[in-house]
Write a structure and sequence with these properties.
The protein is built from 13 helices and 14 strands. The protein is of the alpha/beta class and 330 residues long. The longest helix has 16 residues.
């Protein structure tokens, strides 16, 4: 019997969310709906622009990072999760460690951590519920194979790789090594493409991971288009069948399609009033993996994952409360 259901590897960030309008994004010269990597000086300037020049107050601050969000929802649903990441020996890092511990997630992190700055993601949400993110990676940009726990990975039911790691030299190496450990230990590999900008700018790195063997790919329609060169969902499905064994394409309010290697299933979108799409893909993947680890079908996983993501976008924040998760299972 496996010790862990899902072993995740990805960035460790503290999320800070603001409500803004399109005019602010234009003023800040930020591409709407896209994640932009920034440096520390840019982060400080953006905070100053948000809070002092335009008087936007933070709506919420919470532990984040794409794959971390995925591990949290999996744990909330009842799966055992392990997360490999990197934070600094600073108050923000302390907050992140306590946050994971509170969620019941095992990790490589300890009280003895390197000096530096823990990463931060600034998420700006417009009235149409679109989220525009800027990420200052800080020390998480130097996530490396040293942060892996091979024994925990070997005793997991699934490996989950955060696609954002393709933008970091050492992070990409950690992803490749984790993939190799999983392959030699017969642990299925799942990968999320994470963001259209990542696929557009680091496609060669994604292709290297996919060529190394990916059992389950998570992506949205925009990411699938960029990866396959196709346009319609149907054509993207045909293209992805040549790339990986199984996959899921999320299509926002239109639901999702999932291919388990033999059969293609669809799940209709759950009617909802979206106010913030931050973390929807992360929550979808965590709920989907939890279902697979419980022996459920792709069709069943697709239904719960859509329901989970739809619940998330009805409010601000990239994670659900335990009470909200419990409600999904009723």
């Amino acid at each position: 019997m496996k010790k862990y259901d899902v072993y995740g590897i990805g960035n460790a960030l503290v999320d800070t969310e603001y409500e803004v309008d399109d005019a602010f994004l234009d003023h800040a010269k930020l591409p709407k709906g896209i994640m932009t990597l920034i440096e520390e000086d840019d982060r400080k300037r953006l905070i100053r622009l948000l809070e002092h020049e335009h008087e936007h107050l933070a709506v919420k601050q919470a532990g984040g990072g794409s794959a971390a969000n995925t591990m949290v929802i999996a744990s909330q649903l009842g799966s055992q999760a392990f997360y490999s990441c990197k934070v600094a020996n600073d108050p923000t890092g302390d907050f992140f460690v306590k946050d994971l511990n509170h969620a019941g997630i095992d990790t490589n992190l300890s009280d003895e951590r390197e000096q530096g700055a823990t990463g931060q993601c600034i998420s700006m949400v417009t009235p149409d519920a679109e989220r525009t993110m800027t990420t200052c990676l800080g020390i998480t940009n130097f996530l490396s194979p040293n942060e892996l726990n091979p024994d925990a990975l070997k005793h997991s039911s699934y490996l989950y790789i955060e696609g954002y790691l393709v933008s970091s030299t050492t992070g990409f190496q950690a992803a490749l090594e984790a993939q190799e450990i999983a392959r030699t230990s017969s642990v299925p590999v799942s990968l999320t493409l994470s963001d259209p900008a990542m696929v557009e700018n680091f496609k060669a790195n994604y292709e290297q991971l996919l060529n190394g063997g990916v059992d389950l790919l998570f992506c949205n329609h925009d990411e699938a288009r960029l990866l396959t060169g196709a346009e319609s969902v149907e054509d993207c499905v045909a293209g992805l069948k040549d790339i990986c064994k199984s996959f899921v394409i999320t299509c926002g309010k239109d639901g999702s399609v999932a291919f388990d290697g033999q059969e293609l299933t669809t799940a209709a979108g759950v009617p909802t009033k979206a106010v913030d799409t931050t973390g929807a893909g992360d929550i979808f993947a965590g709920a989907f993996l939890h279902c697979l680890c419980r022996g459920l079908t792709f069709s069943e996983a697709n239904e719960l994952a859509n329901k989970s993501a739809s619940t998330l976008v009805e409010r601000f924040g990239a994670r659900l409360t335990q009470e909200e998760v419990d409600g999904l299972l009723k």
